[in-house]
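Dear colleagues,

I hope this message finds you well. In preparation for our joint manuscript, I am sending the SDR family NAD(P)-dependent oxidoreductase (Glycomyces albidus) sequence together with its predicted structure, so that both groups work from identical material. I would be grateful if you could confirm receipt.
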Amino acid sequence: MNADNASSRIALITGANRGIGRATAERLAALGATVVIGARHRERGEAAAASIRESGGDARAVALDVTDQATVQQAAEEIEERYGRLDVLVNNAGISGSGNAAPQDAVDRVPSAVDLAVVREVFEVNVFGVIAVTNAMLPLLRASDAGRIVNLTSHAASLTLYADPQGPLAGLPSVAYSPSKTALNAVTVQYANELRGEGILVNAVAPGYVDTEINGNTGILTPEQAAEHVVDLALLGGDGPTGGFHSADGPLPW
Ligand SMILES: NC(=O)c1ccc[n+]([C@@H]2O[C@H](COP(=O)([O-])OP(=O)(O)OC[C@H]3O[C@@H](n4cnc5c(N)ncnc54)[C@H](OP(=O)(O)O)[C@@H]3O)[C@@H](O)[C@H]2O)c1
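The corresponding structure tokens are as follows:
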């Protein structure tokens, strides 16, 4: 990662009021980027942006619920008016469908017992929300000389890993979250293919098991550790990869 690459970059991070999204915003801001904190509750976004400014960073908040097209469009208009372009989009907002339960307690995701409304809700945020935000921001990313899109996926997205009966994921039922992230990986490749010729790089990154509310704070990595890899992909040079499924330990199997 090239820190010089961060200065003068404009970056939008969805779900940036807490967790990995917030740590990503803080890291980008510390490297000199201007960060736009997307938060579905504007006051939570404002608080995160104010904290970054107090640390010397350049941050502002936009109200952005990825499932609410009006807020998505409004956020794009605000970024257009203020900056005229977007260099980095981090599609970070995500839900598990199991509240803030640890993965082993997420019994509502057992396939035969799942509430279909939960599956729909998870796909709304983790998949359809990413498409909605990406399409709204694409005109602004096209106005950048180095557009980068990073999608927050998961090891649990890997069909190869969860199809292995002996593997660690086979005993962790997840009929909403895992398939939503598998779909997100497919969406990532689709955008990468479309945008390759325009120099916009689109990648998915699995942050590992991170100590945040999504898993009831059972994770073992800090949000700051996870943010390192997100930021590396957000600041890729023009010869960087696109359409990849990345982790801290290298590429993951689809
Ligand atoms: N933590 C892990 O171990 C782990 C592992 C693999 C992948 N991930 C992925 O990493 C990403 C960040 O998760 P996290 O661990 O930082 O979880 P988190 O602390 O629960 O943060 C999730 C963020 O997403 C926001 N969000 C949820 N629904 C939204 C919506 N409809 N519109 C806009 N924002 C919304 C939340 O906002 P509110 O505060 O308003 O709820 C919050 O800011 C997610 O995509 C997650 O799937 C996490």
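For the figure legend, we might mention the following. Residues 14-15, 17-21, 40-41, 44, 64-67, 92-95, 125, 129, 152, 154, 206-207, 209-210, 212-215, 219 surround NAP (CB under 6 Å). The chain is about 40% helix and 15% strand.

With kind regards,
E.M.
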